[in-house]
Protein backbone atom coordinates (compact mmCIF):
# COMPACT_ATOMS: atom_id res chain seq x y z
CA UNK A 1 0.00 0.00 0.00
CA UNK A 2 2.88 2.37 0.79
CA UNK A 3 4.36 1.79 -2.67
CA UNK A 4 1.20 2.35 -4.69
CA UNK A 5 -1.78 4.68 -4.34
CA UNK A 6 -3.75 2.32 -6.62
CA UNK A 7 -3.06 -0.55 -4.21
CA UNK A 8 -4.23 1.60 -1.32
CA UNK A 9 -7.52 2.35 -3.09
CA UNK A 10 -8.02 -1.32 -3.96
CA UNK A 11 -7.50 -2.46 -0.36
CA UNK A 12 -9.91 0.25 0.83
CA UNK A 13 -12.51 -1.01 -1.64
CA UNK A 14 -12.14 -4.60 -0.43
CA UNK A 15 -12.33 -3.51 3.21
CA UNK A 16 -15.50 -1.52 2.52
CA UNK A 17 -17.28 -4.48 0.86
CA UNK A 18 -19.82 -6.39 2.95
CA UNK A 19 -18.40 -9.70 1.72
CA UNK A 20 -16.33 -11.26 -1.05
CA UNK A 21 -17.23 -13.94 -3.59
CA UNK A 22 -14.40 -16.28 -4.60
CA UNK A 23 -14.91 -18.24 -7.83
CA UNK A 24 -12.75 -21.40 -7.82
CA UNK A 25 -11.92 -23.70 -10.73
CA UNK A 26 -11.74 -26.67 -8.34
CA UNK A 27 -14.53 -29.28 -8.24
CA UNK A 28 -14.32 -31.06 -4.85
CA UNK A 29 -16.46 -34.18 -4.91
CA UNK A 30 -16.31 -35.84 -1.47
CA UNK A 31 -16.28 -34.80 2.18
CA UNK A 32 -12.50 -34.65 2.54
CA UNK A 33 -12.00 -32.78 -0.73
CA UNK A 34 -14.71 -30.24 0.13
CA UNK A 35 -13.55 -29.68 3.70
CA UNK A 36 -9.88 -29.38 2.75
CA UNK A 37 -10.56 -27.14 -0.22
CA UNK A 38 -12.69 -24.61 1.62
CA UNK A 39 -10.53 -24.61 4.75
CA UNK A 40 -7.03 -25.15 3.41
CA UNK A 41 -6.93 -24.21 -0.28
CA UNK A 42 -4.30 -21.93 -1.81
CA UNK A 43 -4.70 -18.69 0.20
CA UNK A 44 -3.91 -16.58 -2.85
CA UNK A 45 -7.54 -17.23 -3.89
CA UNK A 46 -8.86 -15.73 -0.63
CA UNK A 47 -8.73 -12.39 1.17
CA UNK A 48 -8.10 -14.03 4.52
CA UNK A 49 -8.73 -11.08 6.84
CA UNK A 50 -12.16 -10.41 5.31
CA UNK A 51 -14.91 -11.19 7.79
CA UNK A 52 -17.12 -13.06 5.30
CA UNK A 53 -16.31 -14.78 2.01
CA UNK A 54 -18.52 -16.95 -0.15
CA UNK A 55 -16.67 -19.57 -2.18
CA UNK A 56 -18.30 -21.15 -5.24
CA UNK A 57 -16.62 -23.98 -7.15
CA UNK A 58 -16.96 -24.95 -10.81
CA UNK A 59 -19.27 -27.88 -9.95
CA UNK A 60 -21.66 -25.66 -7.94
CA UNK A 61 -20.35 -26.72 -4.53
CA UNK A 62 -20.23 -23.71 -2.23
CA UNK A 63 -19.29 -22.66 1.27
CA UNK A 64 -18.72 -19.61 3.40
CA UNK A 65 -15.44 -18.78 5.11
CA UNK A 66 -15.38 -16.40 8.07
CA UNK A 67 -12.54 -14.68 9.88
CA UNK A 68 -12.88 -15.43 13.58
CA UNK A 69 -11.30 -12.44 15.29
CA UNK A 70 -14.50 -10.37 15.05
CA UNK A 71 -17.25 -12.97 14.62
CA UNK A 72 -17.89 -16.68 15.11
CA UNK A 73 -19.18 -19.19 12.62
CA UNK A 74 -22.51 -19.41 14.44
CA UNK A 75 -23.08 -15.71 13.72
CA UNK A 76 -23.65 -16.54 10.06
CA UNK A 77 -25.74 -19.66 10.69
CA UNK A 78 -29.08 -17.96 10.03
CA UNK A 79 -27.69 -16.36 6.87
CA UNK A 80 -26.47 -19.74 5.71
CA UNK A 81 -29.88 -21.29 6.39
CA UNK A 82 -31.53 -18.58 4.29
CA UNK A 83 -29.04 -19.15 1.46
CA UNK A 84 -29.71 -22.90 1.57
CA UNK A 85 -33.45 -22.32 1.18
CA UNK A 86 -32.86 -19.81 -1.64
CA UNK A 87 -30.62 -22.25 -3.54
CA UNK A 88 -33.05 -25.16 -3.19
CA UNK A 89 -36.08 -23.08 -4.20
CA UNK A 90 -34.35 -21.07 -6.92
CA UNK A 91 -36.42 -20.65 -10.09
CA UNK A 92 -34.80 -18.86 -13.06
CA UNK A 93 -36.78 -15.85 -14.15
CA UNK A 94 -36.25 -12.71 -16.16
CA UNK A 95 -34.07 -10.23 -14.33
CA UNK A 96 -32.31 -6.99 -15.06
CA UNK A 97 -29.43 -9.07 -16.43
CA UNK A 98 -31.61 -10.45 -19.25
CA UNK A 99 -32.34 -8.70 -22.49
CA UNK A 100 -35.70 -8.57 -24.27
CA UNK A 101 -35.12 -12.00 -25.86
CA UNK A 102 -34.58 -13.60 -22.47
CA UNK A 103 -30.86 -14.14 -23.08
CA UNK A 104 -28.51 -13.40 -20.23
CA UNK A 105 -26.57 -10.21 -20.72
CA UNK A 106 -23.08 -9.98 -19.34
CA UNK A 107 -22.95 -7.81 -16.22
CA UNK A 108 -20.54 -4.90 -16.30
CA UNK A 109 -17.47 -5.79 -14.28
CA UNK A 110 -14.40 -3.73 -13.49
CA UNK A 111 -11.01 -5.40 -13.36
CA UNK A 112 -8.57 -4.31 -10.68
CA UNK A 113 -4.97 -5.53 -10.50
CA UNK A 114 -2.53 -5.02 -7.65
CA UNK A 115 0.74 -3.39 -8.58
CA UNK A 116 3.56 -5.57 -7.26
CA UNK A 117 7.32 -5.48 -7.56
CA UNK A 118 10.02 -8.11 -7.09
CA UNK A 119 10.12 -7.62 -3.30
CA UNK A 120 6.39 -8.28 -3.01
CA UNK A 121 6.64 -11.28 -5.35
CA UNK A 122 9.42 -12.75 -3.21
CA UNK A 123 7.39 -12.19 -0.07
CA UNK A 124 4.33 -13.89 -1.64
CA UNK A 125 6.47 -16.92 -2.52
CA UNK A 126 7.81 -17.14 1.04
CA UNK A 127 4.32 -16.93 2.49
CA UNK A 128 3.02 -19.64 0.13
CA UNK A 129 5.92 -21.95 0.99
CA UNK A 130 5.41 -21.37 4.70
CA UNK A 131 1.69 -21.99 4.37
CA UNK A 132 2.33 -25.30 2.64
CA UNK A 133 4.60 -26.44 5.46
CA UNK A 134 2.37 -25.21 8.30
CA UNK A 135 -0.98 -26.55 7.08
CA UNK A 136 -1.50 -30.17 8.18
CA UNK A 137 -2.47 -32.98 5.84
CA UNK A 138 -6.02 -33.63 6.98
CA UNK A 139 -9.08 -35.64 6.06
CA UNK A 140 -12.76 -35.29 6.89
CA UNK A 141 -15.21 -38.05 7.76
CA UNK A 142 -18.83 -38.37 8.86
CA UNK A 143 -20.21 -41.19 10.96
CA UNK A 144 -23.48 -42.04 12.70
CA UNK A 145 -23.44 -44.20 15.82
CA UNK A 146 -26.82 -45.96 15.94
CA UNK A 147 -26.80 -48.08 19.11
CA UNK A 148 -28.20 -45.44 21.50
CA UNK A 149 -28.86 -41.74 21.83
CA UNK A 150 -30.64 -39.23 24.06
CA UNK A 151 -33.42 -41.63 25.12
CA UNK A 152 -31.08 -43.98 27.00
CA UNK A 153 -29.05 -41.17 28.55
CA UNK A 154 -32.14 -39.39 29.86
CA UNK A 155 -33.24 -42.54 31.70
CA UNK A 156 -30.04 -42.10 33.71
CA UNK A 157 -30.71 -38.37 34.24
CA UNK A 158 -27.77 -37.46 32.05
CA UNK A 159 -27.68 -34.66 29.47
CA UNK A 160 -27.33 -36.25 26.00
CA UNK A 161 -24.54 -33.86 25.02
CA UNK A 162 -22.65 -34.53 28.25
CA UNK A 163 -23.10 -38.29 27.85
CA UNK A 164 -21.57 -38.29 24.38
CA UNK A 165 -18.83 -35.91 25.52
CA UNK A 166 -17.81 -38.73 27.88
CA UNK A 167 -17.93 -41.17 24.95
CA UNK A 168 -15.60 -38.87 23.00
CA UNK A 169 -13.16 -38.56 25.92
CA UNK A 170 -13.07 -42.34 26.33
CA UNK A 171 -12.46 -42.65 22.59
CA UNK A 172 -9.67 -40.07 22.90
CA UNK A 173 -7.97 -42.18 25.57
CA UNK A 174 -8.30 -45.31 23.42
CA UNK A 175 -6.98 -43.49 20.34
CA UNK A 176 -4.04 -41.56 21.81
CA UNK A 177 -3.12 -44.07 24.52
CA UNK A 178 -3.28 -41.29 27.12
CA UNK A 179 -5.78 -38.60 28.12
CA UNK A 180 -4.75 -35.41 26.24
CA UNK A 181 -6.20 -31.96 26.97
CA UNK A 182 -9.54 -31.41 25.27
CA UNK A 183 -11.62 -28.29 24.77
CA UNK A 184 -15.34 -27.90 24.09
CA UNK A 185 -16.85 -24.75 22.57
CA UNK A 186 -19.64 -22.98 24.43
CA UNK A 187 -22.04 -20.59 22.71
CA UNK A 188 -22.50 -17.29 24.57
CA UNK A 189 -25.51 -15.99 22.62
CA UNK A 190 -27.36 -15.20 25.82
CA UNK A 191 -25.06 -12.20 26.27
CA UNK A 192 -25.09 -9.00 24.22
CA UNK A 193 -22.26 -9.43 21.71
CA UNK A 194 -21.52 -12.77 23.35
CA UNK A 195 -18.67 -14.71 21.76
CA UNK A 196 -17.94 -18.42 21.73
CA UNK A 197 -15.90 -19.50 24.76
CA UNK A 198 -14.18 -22.82 25.44
CA UNK A 199 -13.73 -24.99 28.50
CA UNK A 200 -11.49 -27.89 29.47
CA UNK A 201 -13.46 -31.15 29.43
CA UNK A 202 -10.79 -33.45 30.89
CA UNK A 203 -11.78 -32.81 34.48
CA UNK A 204 -10.41 -35.10 37.24
CA UNK A 205 -13.72 -36.97 37.43
CA UNK A 206 -13.71 -37.46 33.64
CA UNK A 207 -10.14 -38.80 33.71
CA UNK A 208 -11.06 -41.24 36.52
CA UNK A 209 -14.08 -42.53 34.60
CA UNK A 210 -12.15 -43.01 31.35
CA UNK A 211 -9.26 -44.77 33.10
CA UNK A 212 -11.65 -47.12 34.90
CA UNK A 213 -13.51 -47.92 31.67
CA UNK A 214 -10.31 -48.56 29.72
CA UNK A 215 -8.82 -50.98 32.23
CA UNK A 216 -11.47 -52.00 34.78
CA UNK A 217 -10.05 -53.68 37.88
CA UNK A 218 -10.98 -57.36 38.34
CA UNK A 219 -13.38 -56.61 41.18
CA UNK A 220 -14.72 -53.36 39.72
CA UNK A 221 -18.49 -53.62 39.78
CA UNK A 222 -20.81 -52.18 37.16
CA UNK A 223 -22.44 -50.05 39.85
CA UNK A 224 -19.06 -48.48 40.71
CA UNK A 225 -18.43 -47.68 37.03
CA UNK A 226 -21.91 -46.17 36.73
CA UNK A 227 -21.15 -44.07 39.81
CA UNK A 228 -17.96 -42.80 38.14
CA UNK A 229 -20.00 -42.05 34.99
CA UNK A 230 -22.55 -40.10 37.05
CA UNK A 231 -19.85 -38.11 38.88
CA UNK A 232 -18.10 -37.21 35.61
CA UNK A 233 -21.40 -36.19 34.00
CA UNK A 234 -22.33 -33.98 36.95
CA UNK A 235 -18.92 -32.28 36.96
CA UNK A 236 -19.09 -31.60 33.22
CA UNK A 237 -22.65 -30.27 33.49
CA UNK A 238 -21.73 -27.92 36.34
CA UNK A 239 -18.66 -26.64 34.46
CA UNK A 240 -20.64 -26.12 31.26
CA UNK A 241 -23.34 -24.18 33.09
CA UNK A 242 -20.74 -22.00 34.81
CA UNK A 243 -18.98 -21.18 31.54
CA UNK A 244 -22.24 -20.52 29.67
CA UNK A 245 -23.07 -17.92 32.34
CA UNK A 246 -19.89 -16.02 31.57
CA UNK A 247 -17.72 -17.54 34.31
CA UNK A 248 -15.20 -19.31 32.12
CA UNK A 249 -11.50 -18.54 32.23
CA UNK A 250 -10.01 -19.69 28.91
CA UNK A 251 -10.79 -16.62 26.80
CA UNK A 252 -9.74 -14.22 29.56
CA UNK A 253 -6.42 -15.98 30.14
CA UNK A 254 -5.70 -16.20 26.42
CA UNK A 255 -6.29 -12.44 26.14
CA UNK A 256 -3.98 -11.70 29.08
CA UNK A 257 -1.31 -13.99 27.67
CA UNK A 258 -1.44 -12.26 24.28
CA UNK A 259 -0.74 -8.81 25.75
CA UNK A 260 2.55 -9.90 27.32
CA UNK A 261 5.22 -7.93 25.48
CA UNK A 262 8.22 -9.58 23.80
CA UNK A 263 10.60 -8.08 26.41
CA UNK A 264 8.35 -8.71 29.42
CA UNK A 265 8.64 -11.61 31.82
CA UNK A 266 5.90 -14.18 31.32
CA UNK A 267 3.71 -14.22 34.46
CA UNK A 268 4.12 -17.22 36.75
CA UNK A 269 0.59 -18.44 36.02
CA UNK A 270 1.43 -19.09 32.37
CA UNK A 271 4.57 -20.99 33.38
CA UNK A 272 2.76 -23.19 35.87
CA UNK A 273 3.05 -26.90 34.91
CA UNK A 274 -0.65 -27.52 35.53
CA UNK A 275 -1.62 -24.69 33.19
CA UNK A 276 0.93 -25.81 30.60
CA UNK A 277 -0.40 -29.37 30.57
CA UNK A 278 -3.76 -28.14 29.29
CA UNK A 279 -2.15 -26.69 26.13
CA UNK A 280 -1.82 -27.18 23.27
CA UNK A 281 -5.00 -29.20 22.81
CA UNK A 282 -4.85 -32.26 20.60
CA UNK A 283 -8.62 -32.59 20.50
CA UNK A 284 -11.38 -30.00 20.11
CA UNK A 285 -15.11 -30.74 20.25
CA UNK A 286 -18.36 -28.89 19.66
CA UNK A 287 -22.04 -29.74 19.49
CA UNK A 288 -23.59 -26.61 17.97
CA UNK A 289 -26.29 -28.09 15.66
CA UNK A 290 -25.56 -27.49 11.98
CA UNK A 291 -25.89 -30.85 10.20
CA UNK A 292 -28.95 -29.68 8.26
CA UNK A 293 -27.13 -26.57 7.06
CA UNK A 294 -23.41 -27.41 6.80
CA UNK A 295 -22.22 -30.87 5.86
CA UNK A 296 -18.44 -30.58 5.64
CA UNK A 297 -17.43 -27.82 8.03
CA UNK A 298 -14.30 -28.26 10.05
CA UNK A 299 -11.53 -26.93 12.19
CA UNK A 300 -7.78 -27.50 12.17
CA UNK A 301 -5.14 -26.91 14.84
CA UNK A 302 -1.36 -26.54 14.59
CA UNK A 303 -0.67 -29.89 16.26
CA UNK A 304 -0.17 -32.48 13.47
CA UNK A 305 -1.98 -35.11 15.59
CA UNK A 306 -5.05 -32.94 16.16
CA UNK A 307 -8.60 -34.33 16.03
CA UNK A 308 -11.65 -32.08 15.72
CA UNK A 309 -14.99 -33.70 16.60
CA UNK A 310 -18.42 -32.24 15.95
CA UNK A 311 -21.36 -34.24 17.34
CA UNK A 312 -25.14 -33.98 17.34
CA UNK A 313 -27.22 -36.30 19.51
CA UNK A 314 -30.53 -37.72 18.26
CA UNK A 315 -33.06 -39.86 20.13
CA UNK A 316 -31.42 -43.16 19.19
CA UNK A 317 -28.17 -42.12 17.52
CA UNK A 318 -25.34 -39.62 17.41
CA UNK A 319 -23.96 -38.01 14.24
CA UNK A 320 -20.27 -37.17 14.13
CA UNK A 321 -18.24 -35.02 11.74
CA UNK A 322 -14.52 -35.49 12.28
CA UNK A 323 -11.41 -33.83 10.91
CA UNK A 324 -8.04 -35.38 11.69
CA UNK A 325 -4.65 -36.44 10.33
CA UNK A 326 -4.63 -37.95 6.86
CA UNK A 327 -5.03 -41.71 7.08
CA UNK A 328 -5.91 -41.77 10.79
CA UNK A 329 -9.49 -40.51 10.95
CA UNK A 330 -10.79 -44.06 10.50
CA UNK A 331 -8.90 -45.09 13.64
CA UNK A 332 -10.67 -42.42 15.66
CA UNK A 333 -14.03 -43.52 14.26
CA UNK A 334 -13.22 -47.07 15.40
CA UNK A 335 -12.37 -45.71 18.87
CA UNK A 336 -15.72 -43.89 18.98
CA UNK A 337 -17.51 -47.13 18.12
CA UNK A 338 -15.69 -49.05 20.87
CA UNK A 339 -16.22 -46.26 23.42
CA UNK A 340 -19.91 -46.00 22.53
CA UNK A 341 -20.39 -49.73 23.02
CA UNK A 342 -18.63 -49.64 26.40
CA UNK A 343 -20.91 -46.84 27.63
CA UNK A 344 -24.04 -48.45 26.16
CA UNK A 345 -23.36 -51.78 27.88
CA UNK A 346 -22.60 -49.98 31.15
CA UNK A 347 -25.89 -48.06 31.08
CA UNK A 348 -28.10 -50.91 29.84
CA UNK A 349 -26.90 -53.56 32.34
Features of the shown structure:
12 helices; alpha/beta
Descriptive account of the structure:
- The protein has 349 residues and is an alpha/beta fold.
- Helix content is 43%, strand content 15%.
- The strands form two sheets. The chain has a six-stranded mixed sheet with strand order 4-9-8-7-5-6.
- Helix 7 runs antiparallel to helix 8.
- The longest helix is centred in the C-terminal third of the chain and has 26 residues, at 222-247.
- It is globular, with a radius of gyration of 24 Å.
- The mean pLDDT is 86.
Helix/strand layout:
Elements: H1 5-16, E1 20-24, H2 31-40, E2 52-57, E3 62-66, H3 77-88, H4 118-134, E4 138-145, H5 150-155, H6 160-176, E5 182-186, E6 197-200, H7 204-214, H8 222-247, H9 250-258, H10 268-271, H11 273-277, E7 283-286, E8 307-313, E9 318-325, H12 329-348
Parallel strand pairs: 1-2, 5-7, 7-8
Antiparallel strand pairs: 2-3, 4-9, 5-6, 8-9
Give a short synopsis of this structure.
The protein has helices at residues 5-16, 31-40, 77-88, 118-134, 150-155, 160-176, 204-214, 222-247, 250-258, 268-271, 273-277, 329-348; strands at residues 20-24, 52-57, 62-66, 138-145, 182-186, 197-200, 283-286, 307-313, 318-325. With 349 residues, the chain is α/β, with parallel strands linked by helices.
Amino acid sequence: MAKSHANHQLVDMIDAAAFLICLDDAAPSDATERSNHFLLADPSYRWSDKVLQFVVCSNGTSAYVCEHSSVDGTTFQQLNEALKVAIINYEPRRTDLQNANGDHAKPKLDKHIFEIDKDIESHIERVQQGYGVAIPKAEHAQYTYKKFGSNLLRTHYCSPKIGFQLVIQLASLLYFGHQPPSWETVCMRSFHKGRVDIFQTVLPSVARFCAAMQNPRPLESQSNLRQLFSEAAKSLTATLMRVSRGRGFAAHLYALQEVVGPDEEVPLLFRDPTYSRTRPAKIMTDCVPWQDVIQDGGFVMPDPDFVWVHYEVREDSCWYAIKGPLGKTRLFLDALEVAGEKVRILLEN
